[in-house]
């Protein structure tokens, strides 16, 4: 243990400790104020409503910043965008192009999901679905019956109508948050360099020489997180390609789409495997391809094992 402490950079550890304690004390003070008075509780809800999309927007801008920077560098050789005097114009156009590429990718993903779901549902027996939900007709009746069935199983404790209203309200709040998050993200992507430079000057003015320590801390954190995201992206690409190739050889229906979903799911730890298994089951169930489903499960398990123990 003494050897571990001896290897620590005391100056760096001190900065990390100060930053951590400041965050904990600030959050603790906010929680105490929230519990002390209903007025502060309402104020806390208002602050959270504003900060939540801002945090999501900052995360979006951080993730997309490498793509925007790459596109901006590519535009630097184009007529009308070269030179430092066109830096702001180049950055704005890079943001537009990057957001368009991401939107197209998301649209393609949604299209893939819709195709998979419709392909699977088209082979299911409508009478079987109605019998599972208690013999209902119409979309609203199916949704309400679904909530009733969840309540019977002990999964949901609210009635169907209340659950439907809660779900619709949550969906509306989520959509609103995402819209504002995208707006904040676009703003931060466009003005991010100027905001970062201003915050750096402000930090140096407030803390003096310690500003360099905090700057180094943030630079190290950025290096670690950016490396993690790059590694996850490469890992997801490998898993997606392997899944698509192996499942195509086995003969699993729509194997390339399953590989795509498994790769995208693998961007989040421990999600790629369940997404792959569920996709295989969904596609093979529609065609009653039980042997291919079993072979696909074995292949996906092998790919996940290789990914966890060799690739990573």
Descriptive notes:
It is a single chain. The protein is mostly helical and 312 residues long. Helix content is 85%, strand content 0%. It is built from 11 helices and no strands. It has helices at residues 2-7, 10-36, 38-75, 87-121, 126-132, 139-152, 160-207, 210-250, 255-265, 272-287, 290-311. Helix 4 (87-121) runs antiparallel to helix 7 and helix 9 (255-265) packs antiparallel against helix 10 (272-287). The longest helix has 48 residues, at 160-207. The chain starts with a helix and ends with a helix. The mean pLDDT is 75.
How would you sum up this structure in a few lines?
85% of the residues lie in helices and 0% in strands. The chain contains 11 helices and no strands.
Overview features:
mainly alpha, single chain
Low-confidence stretches: none
- Give helix and strand order, one letter per element, not per position: HHHHHHHHHHH
Largest sheet: none
Shape from CA axes?
A: globular
Mean pLDDT: 75
Distance between the termini: 28 Å
Helix content: over 70%
Structural class of the secondary structure composition?
Answer: mainly alpha
Taking Cα atoms only, what radius of gyration do you get, to the nearest Å? 25 Å
What is the overall number of helices?
Answer: 11
Annotation, overall tally of beta strands:
0
Strand percentage: under 5%
What's the SSE blueprint?
Layout: H1 2-7, H2 10-36, H3 38-75, H4 87-121, H5 126-132, H6 139-152, H7 160-207, H8 210-250, H9 255-265, H10 272-287, H11 290-311
Helix pairs in contact: 2-3, 2-8, 3-4, 3-7, 4-7, 4-10, 6-7, 7-8, 8-9, 8-11, 9-10, 10-11
């Amino acid at each position: 243990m003494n050897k571990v402490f001896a290897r620590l950079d005391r100056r760096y550890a001190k900065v990390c400790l100060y930053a951590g304690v400041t965050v904990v004390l600030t959050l603790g003070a906010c929680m105490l104020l929230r519990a002390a008075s209903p007025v502060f509780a309402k104020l806390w809800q208002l602050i959270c409503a504003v900060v939540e999309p801002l945090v999501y927007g900052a995360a979006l801008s951080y993730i997309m910043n490498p793509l925007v920077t790459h596109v901006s560098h590519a535009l630097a050789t184009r007529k009308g965008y070269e030179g430092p005097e066109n830096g702001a114009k180049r950055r704005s156009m890079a943001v537009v192009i990057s957001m368009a590429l991401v939107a197209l990718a998301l649209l393609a993903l949604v299209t893939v999901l819709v195709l998979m779901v419709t392909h699977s549902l088209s082979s299911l027996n409508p009478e079987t679905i109605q019998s599972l939900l208690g013999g209902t007709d119409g979309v609203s009746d199916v949704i309400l019956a679904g909530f009733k069935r969840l309540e019977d199983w002990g999964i949901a404790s609210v009635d169907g109508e209340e659950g439907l209203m809660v779900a619709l309200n949550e969906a509306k709040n989520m959509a609103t948050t995402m819209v504002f998050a995208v707006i904040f993200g676009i703003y931060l992507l466009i003005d991010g360099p100027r905001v970062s430079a201003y915050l750096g000057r402000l930090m140096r003015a407030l803390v003096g020489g310690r500003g360099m320590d905090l700057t180094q801390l943030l630079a190290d954190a950025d290096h670690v997180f950016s490396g993690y995201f790059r590694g996850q992206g490469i890992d997801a690409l490998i898993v997606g390609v392997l899944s698509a190739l192996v499942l195509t050889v086995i003969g699993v229906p729509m194997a390339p789409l399953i590989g795509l979903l498994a790769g995208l799911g693998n961007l989040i730890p421990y999600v790629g495997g369940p997404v792959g298994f569920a996709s295989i089951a969904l596609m093979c169930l529609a065609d009653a391809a039980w042997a291919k489903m079993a072979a696909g499960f074995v292949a996906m398990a092998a790919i996940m094992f290789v990914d966890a123990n060799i690739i990573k």
